[in-house]
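Thread: quick sanity check before group meeting

JM: Hey all, I'm pulling together slides for Thursday and realized we never actually wrote out the predicted structure for the chain we discussed last week. Dropping the sequence here so it's in one place. If anyone has concerns about the input, flag it before I start.
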Amino acid sequence: MPTFLKSDIARSQLETAVDIFLKGLSYHSVITLAGAASGILDGLLLAASKEPFVDYARRVHAGLHGQMLGRVKVAHYIEQRFGISAHKHLYETDTDTVELDLERQAANALTKAIGDYIALSGQEEPFVKAFLQWSWVTMDGQALMRKYAEVPPTMRPKTE
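JM (edit): ok, ran it. Output follows.
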């Protein structure tokens, strides 16, 4: 039986998710794949003593509001906001329908996963570059960089 590295599984999921996203084929699939890749990447980053998106979000919240929220609570909140939970859970108390801004939530789920992938493996893969290029053009990259320049260094992602 073949053996696979979890990092290769996450990379494959993200590569497929970016391809589907950029072609506009199935935002449901993008959210599902990005959410699955995020789950793997989060664990890999923690094992490598690097900061996953969830912990970065917790640190930013603490910097803005003076309170460090629990990791599980923040992870759940992010999964709810990005539509990931709606694509992997149906609890007894849930309705059969869900309102989603699919394209936006797919972009957000991919951004989270790509950010974690970059923190772990860099940004040289063609699928990463393709998504970053889409993001730069679609989200007004120059304006975002001006805003980022104003972010205090303590609230920026940890790079090493």
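AS: nice. The CA atoms of residues 136 and 145 lie 10 Å apart. The two ends are 36 Å apart (CA to CA).
JM: adding both to the slides.
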